[in-house]
Amino acid sequence: MLEKFFSTEPNFILTVARVTLGLVMIPHGFQKLFGWLGGYGWSATLGFFSSQGIPVILGILVILAESFGALGLILGLFTKLSAFGIGLTMLGAAIFQRQNGFFMNWFGSQSGEGIEYHILAMGLAFVLLIAGGGAFSLDWLISQKLK
User: What is the pTM of this model?
Assistant: First the structure.
């Protein structure tokens, strides 16, 4: 079971996908977790989620996925679990923002952001969920020790 959880090939393309998704997600996580980078922090984020009808436990999981999951992706540790959490978070965000259409709000003419970013993140997360973290990942090192 553990072998499958950590399994990955030393593939550099997976490394690029993993680090890219991690670097894109971690600022969002830090906004929600710490209030950095223009965010509101833990309590205010959970309050916002609650005001939108999102249960507190889901809000906590979103914050953990976007912060610790993104850090896990950058390090290549628990890549499949991290990708699963981020993928589900992006699916939820896409459903939540579907009324804004497909495209990002480049010109401020929409009521919010579209779902194209979420789809890209879900695609990268799916690849990592299936194939693992690739080369230069802690998962790869652990998988070699388990063999």
Answer: 0.92
Other CB atoms within 10 A of residue 37 CB? 11
Contact status, residue 93 vs residue 85, Cβ threshold 8 Å: no
- Cβ-based neighbour number of residue 82 at 10 Å: 30
Distance separating alpha carbons of residues 66 and 31, to the nearest angstrom: 9
What distance lies between CA 43 and its chain's CA centroid? 20
What is the tens place of the pLDDT at every residue in 44-88? Answer: 999 999 999 999 999 999 999 999 999 999 999 999 999 999 999
Residue 17, burial from CB neighbour count under 10 angstroms (0-12, 13-18, 19+)? buried
Tell me 30's DSSP state.
H
- Other C-beta atoms lying within 10 Å of the C-beta of residue 47: 14
H-helix or E-strand containing 15? Answer: helix 12-34
Helices (H), the chain: 2-6, 12-34, 41-51, 56-64, 70-75, 79-96, 116-131, 138-146
Q: What is the DSSP letter of 76?
A: T
Which helix (DSSP H) or strand (DSSP E) does residue 38 occupy? none
